[in-house]
Amino acid sequence: MRADGRALPAYEAGAHVDLEVPGGGVDGIPPWRQYSLCGDPSRSDAFELGILNEPAGRGGSRAICEHVREGTILRVGAPRNHFPLVADSQRSVLLGGGIGITPLLAMAHALKSAGRAFDLHYCTRSGEATPFLDVVEEFAPNLTLHHSDAGTRLRVEDLPPPDPSVHIYLCGPERFIESLGTASRARGHASENIHREFFNAEVRRDGEGFEVEARASGVAVHVAEDEPITRALARVGVKVEVKCEEGVCGTCITDVIEGVLDHRDHFLTDEEKESNSLLALCCSRARGKLVLDI
Ligand code: FES
């Protein structure tokens, strides 16, 4: 609930919020992380999030699990949705790996309430390592559980045959998303019917240095080898808002005036990348001179 008692903003299944991590940031970068809303979207009294404590992660989930207690007041952004359900699809196939089940729970709630056809496949290591087991069970008989330890991994043959009215939604670890996305396309599902949600991703940051000009700000700076563009711009006073810093949230996407782009993000679509007009400044790079509309 909101601290001021006012109503929470409405959201649609697939949405996420930015949450300020308690306990301070590093290098003055605000410590925000993105988490899917996993409750029933028709509920207006609460935002439900599922946060896995990942000791080997960047520290956000650990800080939240250590510092947040009942009654803790947190700063949370308005819901944003880059992973919406397609309104006129005949069948939705929800594929969740581990904690990536969270946005799919909200989708399953919405589809069930609307009486729309869906299949929920939930992949985990074992029955013991299956968060939200009690919640997903309410989606039987549309639910299939897959446990790798039990040899019941999801196979692409478990999915419905390709059809323009079938849409597939993938959320989980990067390798889970990439391998099932590739297998679905190989089976004949159209790329535009395969929807993916990343929450963290391995981002390659290596690369040679290059020049960047922030034309609207009237400054230019050298981006050092392996340095994010955002950090180089900050040195000359151009502050770019960042949230995930892993190329998944879209906060730092900026208009490009000219340059040879080297996209490293998981946010822009293939068409947007080919347009050569947008760049995720937290992780992507360029070759030669880059001119930004900033
Ligand atoms: S800060 Fe999230 S994509 Fe760049």
Please tell me about this protein's structure:
The protein is an alpha/beta fold. Among the domains are: 91-197, Rossmann fold; 210-292, Ubiquitin-like (UB roll), CATH 3.10.20. Helices cover 17% and strands 24% of the residues. The protein contains six helices and twelve strands. A hairpin with a 4-residue loop joins strand 8 (210-214) and strand 9. It is globular. The mean pLDDT is 92. The structure holds FE2/S2 (inorganic) cluster. FE2/S2 (inorganic) cluster is lined by residues 242-245, 247-252, 265, 267, 280, 282.
Gist?
The protein is of the alpha/beta class.
Rg, alpha carbons: 20 Å
Query: Could you say what the CATH topology of the domain at 91-197 is called?
Result: Rossmann fold
Number of helices: 6
**SSE order, one letter for each helix or strand:** EEHEHEHEEHEEEHEHEE
The shape is globular
The CATH superfamily of the domain at 91-197 turns out to be Nucleotide-binding domain of ferredoxin-NADP reductase (FNR) module
The biggest beta sheet is recorded as: 5 strands, parallel
How big a fraction of the residues is strand?
A: 15-25%
Ends distance = 37 Å
Low-confidence stretches: none
* Ligand roster: FE2/S2 (inorganic) cluster
Total strand segments: 12
Rounded mean pLDDT is 92
Structural class: alpha/beta
Sheet with most strands: strand arrangement: 5-4-3-6-7
CATH architecture heading of the domain at 91-197: 3-Layer(aba) Sandwich
> Helical amount among residues, as a percent range?
10-25%
